[in-house]
Design a protein that fits this description.
The structure is a homotetramer. Chain A is an alpha/beta fold. Chain A has two domains: about 70 residues, Cytochrome b5-like heme/steroid binding domain (Flavocytochrome B2, Chain A, domain 1, Roll), CATH 3.10.120.10; about 300 residues, Aldolase class I (TIM Barrel, Alpha-Beta Barrel). At the A-B interface, strand 5, helix 5, helix 11, helix 12 and strand 14 of A face helix 7, strand 7, helix 17 and helix 18 of B. Chains A, B, C, D: Pfam families: Cyt-b5, FMN_dh. Chains A, B, C, D: InterPro entries: Aldolase_TIM (IPR013785), Cyt_B5-like_heme/steroid-bd (IPR001199), Cyt_B5-like_heme/steroid_sf (IPR036400), FMN-dep_DH (IPR000262), FMN_HAD (IPR037396), FMN_hydac_DH_AS (IPR008259).
């Protein structure tokens, strides 16, 4: 049916037949535009250069004279980004009854922590965009465990330390930062806000932290770079392309623009199965499923998907490619997505500048460990090999939501932590200012934690300030005992009788 | 009252007086048909040959000339398998209110994982059939723990491995399979779908996995065997009959038909107490209880039941019978239902071909361990005795619902895993195609897990890819503290205020 | 106000001024009857001889000629034991809506396990009686933990054992029993059913288990003894009276009547604070509190209570009294309420016949250990001192609700288990027949467990059949993370969308 | 806008421009009174001398002739403390339906435990006052964990000990007390009740326990001291002022008044972020936020706050100040807020009289350990250094709600426990009598626990009476498995069907 799917974008025709199947936004968005000029619906989400980044040159079919396209073959732009329709929300009234009222966005000053932004983002975002950002792999156990892991670490504060002045500034890969935190790369920021990555670049500057530019951005690399202030330092994330020359070009451009470090993503040789997102797409875009036939062989089906995906992320990347990676740039090269000591040691021995312990925000492999949990194992192993803070930087990301989380990561040896979703949620709810305030809240929290822990500056934070006895405890309680539970009559405090 | 219960089936008269008491479908279904030709209501669920398999010859009372039976003594067939009546369902509307709407079966393509099929099956199945399949022993703690156990295993993925091609094919007892998974034996598939086991046989072929034919099937053995394609290999499960000659005949038939392996069930010398199912029957079939008398001695009561059950499953089967088992066939003989190292070692030393670590889907003994939890103990013990993958195959079943579960079992040494309820639920909801798609989803998941774990093929999956520290933790949290809990005012994120 | 509280019972006048304060049924019931003949309201709950058992002789003020009492000074009997008013109950209808309907007691045959009786008892019992039976000490953590502890023990079944015949009969202190279980002493059975302890005596006979007669019964000792069949063996519980001669008389009567063993309660030198019960009384009997004055000294207040209680249970009882206890009877003497190894060893060394590991059904000290959890520690210690099954019997009670619980206790070394509330709940809901059926259900369960565990008789059940790794884990999960939890959008299976 | 904020109080003008930003009650209450005589709204909450205690002399701008102030520049007093408006409350009716009814305060005699007072306080307190008292730091995990930690300790009672007489009296820092408990310092008791700290002083006398006078009280120090009976001994808490002379004056006054011990707070160099309280203020006082600008640098913002706070609590206080502290008084000096062994040893070696293991009621640093959990580590460490009960007293506070909690703290080595919120909640709900009854309930509970544990007096309570195996287990269960959970059909007891 959709055997042949050509689409015109910015005056070029592309063969998206295979790509449609692996479009993270769902095939329908593409197949509906087959044979048409889709520029108007493509532009609000994607950067102009994404086709050149992702698609094989062979699939670019040549230039089209757009003046010759009939109006009925030109997609109309989506309605202007209108304010989200007021939603209804269940509210627990004082008298315990459920009431309904319109959702009224609180003022920015009411945001007291990073969770607040998430709760507002859930209300104001388009459901599809919310689904794309908030979903995780499979049962989302790792997604949720990422933050919970920090609660498995207990604080061990010291008293009677002079904490009049708290200094949380630090250097991240040599770059000064207002606290040990950076904005990690996340895809398609326009789904959150029209200003997308440009707002993040500016907010990073105001907040005084580095931003790791994503490969799969909504704005082009040039646009993102141009949004910097002259003195602003950024990092960049990299998906290695199966056609290495493309990655080489991209890296050269980064280096030329003064980007300081390159984080190569190694935990995504295939995109994770994010079912909440998959369901959203199914429900909202409808489906062209022709009955209930499941006859095709499973292997062919999935191999097809793999082949398409591997057109822009190389699943064959392996340790033998590391020398090539190091050879193409003078930037510091780090691995993003390490999950055990052995691989961290390999990275160190391979002469890389560091690694990020990460499970990709719980979006890839479910039931794996949070970065913070992997950290002690990695620090012990790389130190045993001679690694120091100077020659091998270890970062973590995933689940950082409190200043105390930053503290715990630093205590266990991380040079800094990456935050992703909190940036997107604060961007979605309040734009650039939202991001800045989100960082301010983390700073307020971290300042308090440092003061109350008796650690006036970053170097003073040590392993002795935390207890990790329970960090690796993945406890799944036995199922509840229904028969007992349903007859038992609970105690009630006096005011409830 | 029902002291004497004769029933005519396919022109033969049977004395079902004792059998009625242990009929898994409830006594009433049989006693209501006393003195009648019940063929019409028997046929939709049971295979024609079940009486010969289960009943002692002495209870077959001879041939009846069915033309002489008066119409009022002939049971009417149940109404044709009409589509399940549209059910109402509580739906959380966007505004938080509860609404009611008719259940509309989603298209097959909306099934993203094995849980989806279960949720649809619950809606479309007859309550009695759902109760029979979904229930477990006693408090159903083991039933639910079976899947939870997999969550007590944490993934330890490796990076920078070439995972361009993922090969999950393997051999199960020498039989090629598209992944390390087989369909385990489950009783009475017609309760799920009119095509019953025949659909499972066909789906197994399409999905490329072996099917273990059940003894207590809805179709006859001949019918199941006939549903195979010429090159399709199947296994068979066996309940050993107290009259060994019957089992010998049955096994001979299997061997002659080319069945490759015989799995002898050893965890069901008595049927488990499945209370959800018992209640269903009580509620829906009514009861002929005459008041509240409980005078009869308990021992007599239960011994009666035992005697009746033992008419077709021998509770006296023991290790001394193993040489006989091995003597009657050239098929590989395995034990299904092993739950500790000692018994696995005994099986190995007895020269058997392997064993299945299983608790019978949580339907027998409650609060025992899931197969996946027993696996490390068994692998260590049998390997210490010299067992290898070649001479002793270890399988597990119970709770497998995700491709990651298959991965974890393989990592810990299983040759493959058995799935039971997912087959029944996908059969019940979408027939043969449902089963195939269910396997496809598991394959998609397993492919992703293998790619993200850095294990491109089955042999590359090892113990080092998983963490089992918490696998044996059966944690029952202390009861909640009601007084504290009921006065505490929880935090609310900003959007909820 | 109630400084002087005399009450006439069966023609004798008693000074209940002090006793009223410690009346387990609440002071108001007594003070309301001050100066009156209260026989009519006393008789339905209490035995005729309780005053002689509990009250100091000095407080019996002499005989009253009841013919001289004016009618207005004679309490009226409570209304005849009318069937409990039909109650309303919330019911989850098929469509998810809450409905209300009258509670209809299910037939006895619908009772499938001991929990069922409890659920029916909650509906049919008077709220005060339910409150008295079902309540526990303080936060009721131990009350609920008692049963949960059994779930912290995992089964380790063996296969291929000949389990055609299961024999669960055993001897308890030399007395034959149909299973390793006895009915433990519980107070005031008339609160459950008019036939009270007499029904329990008869049910014990029918069920083939010993009954431990309670000191604080609703029927007199003579009445309970008379309810026995000629060959029926019973045990007896004893609260030691501060006036030792009273206990000596009571014990002599027991011995003369052929009672076989004496269980001396040692865990109740003071009655526990059962707040659910206290609230019930407060709410339902009203209160004569004069404002909010709390001026009296706490010490005086509680010492008063203690003094009154100690009028019939001696809080001074200690190890030096054991020789006296042994000297006054030839019955076997055991301690009921031991909670650690040291005390069990003391009991053994003191020449006692055994002990019951018990926390008094969770009604006394909260956050202490269930009997089943104390068992391994005790067995190891007494065996190290030379104790054997023959010369020192160890029992447990508390939380036994399943046949599997009995199995686990036996596996860990208990000679038998005591059940209390299940007897009261089955008595309350269905009378004597209810108790018998409750035992039958436990027998059915135990038979199944023994058959599935590969243990055809009681001696074959060993420590190797269970896993106790988690038995002593008292896990209190950290409080839930409200901010995270309240914004997270859970996954929904397909049929729920 | 509020750049210049002068306020007149008791005839003096103060420059509160900077202070407003750190006013624990919120800036708006102060800025609304800018340029006015605010005495009338200040007086009901604060002591007259607080300005002298907290504010730098330079900010006292001189005396104002109040007769010259125009009426429109004089704040009106808040309405007289009217009884709280009857609130509505959700009530679970017998038939399961939700009903609404007016909250009716139960009589004092219905208060059976400390939780009851909290539940009543929640209903009768002004929401802001409730928010201020009940809130904790960040996610309130430590706030809630404080009480839960006691449930991680299991009782190990002994039997057959003569417990006729229970003596729970003890000495706290040499001062006789009716039980091992004192009222710890809490701020601003007038928020609970008009009589504030005066009622607490009187209740402490009646209850026979010492009270630790707070620095941040609602009544002046003189007023609190005057409320004592002639023989009543009190302690005092101290926030060390950055201007040491102020603290010296304050301490001298305490010593002169016969105060026996000085507890220097060391866990609050900065006030914790109590978000529930912050939200309350935001919601109820409105906000003057001008749009969503978050432009100002975070560092400046928070440093500003710190500077203001540090005007009355010195964040620079450190171990080198200890000799000074000891030099200015002959009172015993202790540290309040120690959280690990190292600091307790430092305190002991510094010649201090003891310390309080405390996390400030969970109001400061979140995810740190409860005092009771730190206790074993501290006792072992200080004893190893030679500390004895006589020369170094260790206390704990936080989460004490039951007599059993007191028992457990004493068993693990605490000389006594401090209670804070229970005092405020019982004060708020029933005034002075409420506090006394709250202590009576704890005494009743402790008496019962001591009697049932076989420990007739305080010295007989030892480590062997408790089990602490799980005390340090901070278990965070893995997130619930939604897909499994939402399709599973739970068992229902018979009465629920």
């Amino acid at each position: 049916m959709h055997d042949d799917c050509w689409v015109v974008l910015y005056g070029k025709a592309y063969d998206l037949t295979k790509f449609a199947k692996v479009h993270p936004g769902g095939a329908k968005l593409i197949t509906d535009a087959a044979g048409m000029d889709a520029t108007a619906i493509f532009d609000p989400i994607h950067p102009k250069d994404i086709m050149d980044k992702l698609l094989k040159p062979a699939l670019t079919m040549g230039v089209v004279d757009t003046t010759t396209i009939k109006p009925e073959h030109v997609c109309k732009p989506p309605e202007a980004h209108k304010p989200a329709p007021k939603k209804k929300k269940a509210v627990k009234a004082d008298d315990g009854a459920e009431e309904e009222e319109e959702f009224k966005k609180p003022p920015l000053a009411a945001m007291l922590n990073s969770f607040d932004f998430e709760s507002v983002a859930r209300e104001v975002m388009e459901p599809q965009a919310w689904g794309y950002y908030s979903s995780g792999g499979d049962d989302e156990i790792t997604l949720r465990d990422n933050h919970l892991a920090f609660q498995r670490i207990t604080m061990r504060p010291r008293i009677l330390v002079n904490v009049r002045e708290i200094d949380m500034t630090t250097k991240i890969l040599g770059v000064p930062a207002s606290l040990p935190l950076y904005f990690t790369a996340t895809a398609l920021a326009k789904l959150a806000h029209q200003e997308g990555e440009l707002a993040i670049v500016k907010a990073a500057k105001k907040a005084g932290v580095p931003y790791m530019l994503p490969t799969l951005s909504s704005y082009t690399l040039d646009e993102m770079l141009a949004a910097r202030t002259p003195d602003q330092v950024v990092f960049s994330q990299l998906y290695v392309n199966p056609e290495r020359s493309r990655s080489e070009e991209y890296v050269a451009k980064l280096e030329q623009a003064g980007v300081q470090a390159l984080f190569v993503t190694v935990d995504a040789p295939q995109l994770g199965r994010r079912e909440k997102d998959m369901r959203n797409k199914f429900t909202q875009q409808g489906s062209d499923v022709q009955g209930d036939d499941e006859d095709e062989g499973a292997v062919d089906r999935s191999q097809g998907a793999t082949r398409a995906i591997s057109s822009y992320i190389d699943p064959g990347l392996n340790w033998e490619d590391v020398p090539w990676l190091k050879s193409i740039t003078k930037m510091k090269v780090l691995l993003k997505g390490v999950q055990c000591a052995e691989d961290a040691v390999m990275a160190y021995k391979s002469g890389l500048a560091g690694c990020v312990l990460s499970n990709h925000g719980g979006r890839q492999l479910d039931t794996c460990r949070p970065g913070i949990e992997v950290l002690p194992e990695v620090m012990e192993a790389v130190r045993a090999e001679g690694a120091t803070k100077e020659n091998f930087a270890v970062f973590i990301d995933g689940g950082v939501r409190r200043g105390g989380d930053v503290f715990k990561a630093v205590a266990l040896g991380a040079q800094a932590v990456g935050v992703g979703r909190p940036v997107l949620y604060s961007l979605a709810s309040y734009g650039q200012n939202g991001i800045v305030r989100m960082v301010h809240m983390l700073q307020d929290e971290l300042q308090m934690v440092m003061r109350l822990a008796g650690t006036p500056n970053i170097p003073s934070i040590t392993e002795k300030h935390v207890i990790t006895t329970n960090l690796a405890d993945h406890i799944v309680p036995l199922p509840i005992d229904n028969l007992t539970h349903k007859t038992y009559q609970g105690l009630e405090p006096a005011a409830r009788l």
